[in-house]
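Subject: sequence -> structure tokens, single chain

Hey, anyone have a minute? Need the predicted structure for the following. Not urgent.
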Amino acid sequence: MDTLKGKKIMVWTFMRNSRMHQALRDYGGRISQIGLFSFKVRATGEIYESGVAISNMLNYINKWPHIKWLLTVANDGANSIFKALRENTGGLITTAIPHSS
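Reply:
Had a minute. Here:
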């Protein structure tokens, strides 16, 4: 009996080691969502790629089209990031965080 059958599974990953790549290759069919920690926020409010480039993930994205890829901003505890969010520096909140009017 497959205890995961019918279940949705979400994982978070940095995709920086061979184990993570192997797990995605072998078990991608069972994963529904992946939070990919490949982004950070500068004190200016700019969001930038900081880890594995999304272009390097295209093989997995194409192989597992059912996976919802959540482009996740890493929180390194830097005060400048939180200040940029609080103060909407560079329009960060209105640009990056969807909201309804």
